[in-house]
Design a protein that fits this description.
274 residues; Rossmann fold; 9 strands; single chain; alpha/beta; globular
């Protein structure tokens, strides 16, 4: 099977730059049920992603397909309100198009959020978890194939999630009296939820939470030299940890329930970010 070529980023970049007074410093990728944070942006410039050349359509429920530029806590930001997933039937290279775009627009920090299933037995629905590391169990990498020449051919992921930024974020959470967890995030391709046997395997591998996004975005961001902070909203307990079957509607509902704390935490993180 031929490797998909890199989509050209310049048409979308140039179209967006014509609409912005200032470039973003920080990009926020908003996960399922957490997209409401974009509504808090001051002086927003809202761009439907369908209007941008080569930008993949976001088809997952709870993802609106917009880029929202403006300021939040005094910082120039862009919210990616509606991410792209591998299970939507596109190549992993197309999944990371939004990351390539926000980097081309000037963002050098990425705060990536997601809804995840809790594997760690100490976790509960509604917990917020800082990602310390990840496991790529989808076995897909956006950098595979011809090199784009935008970063090192063999980028290190030893500190995929910036430990200095994470410590500042944890301190901000303490100051706001928001309880948080920390742990390892495992990525699967989806869209089916995991089996009981898979969850037992993932726990044995050291995973604390599982989800269907984030890892390709982080790989791409680190390749481009961006600093990354990851935050998972534990919107459900993984298969086998409760008696009810998993439903996406429930994931979105818990995301809405914890929206206030998640938004407060992101605001505090932005204030603490240097």
């Amino acid at each position: 099977m031929p490797i998909d070529p890199w989509d050209p980023i310049e048409p979308a970049r140039d179209a967006v730059l014509r609409l912005l007074a200032a470039p973003p410093e920080i990009a926020l990728v908003l996960g399922s049920g957490l997209g409401g944070l974009a509504d808090a942006i001051v002086d927003p410039v809202i761009i439907p992603t369908r209007s941008l050349s080569h930008y993949p359509a976001s088809t997952a429920p709870g993802h609106q397909g917009r880029l929202v530029f403006g300021t939040l806590e005094g910082r120039p930001v862009v919210c990616v309100q509606g991410r792209i997933h591998l299970y939507e039937g596109i190549s992993v290279r197309r999944v990371v198009f939004p990351i390539r775009l926000v980097h081309a627009l000037g963002a050098r920090k990425l705060l990536v959020t997601n809804a995840a299933g809790g594997i760690n037995r100490q976790f509960a629905e509604g917990d917020l978890m800082f990602i310390t590391d990840h496991i790529n169990f989808a076995f897909a990498n956006p950098l595979a194939g011809p090199d784009a020449g935008e970063g090192p051919r063999f980028p290190s992921l030893s500190d995929a999630y910036d430990p200095v930024w994470r410590r500042a974020a944890e301190a901000a959470a303490l100051q706001e009296r928001i309880a948080t967890q920390s742990g390892v995030y495992l990525w699967t391709g989806g869209p089916s939820y995991e089996t009981r046997s898979e969850i037992r395997l993932y726990r044995a591998l050291g995973a604390d939470a599982v989800g269907m996004s984030t890892v390709p975005e982080v790989i791409q961001a680190r390749y481009l030299g961006m600093s990354v902070l990851g935050l998972s909203a534990i919107t459900n307990l993984a298969t086998g940890m409760n008696t009810e079957p998993l439903r996406h509607e429930d994931v979105l509902a818990v995301g809405r329930r914890i929206r206030h704390d998640a938004e407060r935490l992101v605001r505090a993180i932005l204030r603490a970010t240097t």
